[in-house]
Amino acid sequence: MTTVKEALHSTAACDSIFLAGWVRTRRDSKAFSFLELNDGSCLKGIQVVADAGIPGYDDITKMTTGASVRVEGKLIPSQGAGQAWEVQAQSLTLVGSADESYPLQKKGHTLEFLRSIAHLRARSNLFGAVFRTRSRMTMAVHEFFQSRGFVNVHTPIITASDCEGAGEMFRVTTLGQGSAAKPEGDFFGKNAYLTVSGQLEAETFACALGKVYTFGPTFRAENSNTSRHAAEFWMIEPEVAFCDLHGDMDLAEAHVKHMVKVMLTDCVEDLEFFSKFVDKELIARLKFVAERPFQRVTYTDAVEILLQSGQQFEYPVEYGANLQSEHERYLTEKHFQCPVTVFNYPKEIKPFYMRLNEDGKTVAAMDLLIPGIGELIGGSQREERLEVLQANMERHGVKEEDYWWYVDLRKYGTVPHAGYGMGFERLLMFVTGVGNIRDVIPYARTPGSAEF
RNA sequence: UCCGGCGUAGCUCAGCGGCAGAGCGGGUGGCUGUUAACCACUAGGUCGUAGGUUCGAUCCCUACCGCCGGAGCCA
Question: What angle separates helix A245-266 from helix A424-432, to the nearest 10 degrees?
Answer without folding.
Answer: 50
